[in-house]
Amino acid sequence: MDERLEVTRADLTSPLALALIGELDVELLFIYPEEGATHFRLDADDVSESRGAFVVATLADAPIGCGAVRLLDTETAEIKRMYVKPSRRGRGVARRILDELETHARRLGARRIVLETGERQPDALALYGGAGFVGIPRFGEYVDSPLSVCMEKQL
Q: What is the rounded CA–CA span in Å between residue 139 and residue 6?
């Protein structure tokens, strides 16, 4: 992994964040064109200092990825909006983002972290499995989403 890689908190509503999230949305809509198969909701309040975090990964000051964590309750946090530009994948960037999000979840008092990804995303499934996440029943807004794969990790 390049030493110039930085993962820092960012404003979810900034042009930089919106550009990365836009790229993620386009990719997910291509992978999951079915009606109702994507779950894009994340509000700025969800990642406020007291409730979560949105982070951006930069390499030599160029944005290459992002991710978010938000509290669902006093002990559970959820990973959202994980993305790394395709040209930068396979180099440990996603793992660095995930590690940073886990740090934020612990800071918020979470003892458990959950996430949703899709069955058509083998790289994401491998990343989360390698980071210690295990499969759980679909939860929350994903309960009726047959393409969703939900996972958790105890912190």
A: 32
Phi, psi of 72 (to 5 degrees): -95, -35
Q: Is 97 exposed, middle or buried (0-12, 13-18, 19+ CB in 10 A)?
A: buried
pTM of model > 0.85: yes
Tell me the CB-side half-sphere exposure of residue 72, using CA atoms within 13 A: 15
Confidence of residue 1 (pLDDT cuts 50, 70, 90): low
DSSP 32-47: --STT-------GGGG
Helices (H), the chain: 15-31, 93-107, 122-130
The domain 5-113 is placed in CATH, from the list 3.40.1190.10, 3.40.50.300, 1.10.730.10, 3.40.630.30, at 3.40.630.30
